[in-house]
Amino acid sequence: xxxxxxLRSFRKTKERDERTRKAAESRTRSGRSKGERKRDxxxxxxxxxxxxxxxxxxxxxxxxx
Length: 65
Prior knowledge:
Blueprint: H1 7-30, H2 34-53, H3 58-64
């Protein structure tokens, strides 16, 4: 005799696996994930803020001389 399976659970598992597969394809197709894009954006903003805070103002040096 064969193994008894719950068809509803089998169907749901199959659908979940299909959604997971499609999501993986989409991530591959679109490149980076949302988290990676957000992380890069935050790093860029931090770098710009750091550099702006240490910028030497050449205009104020010229006016003083």
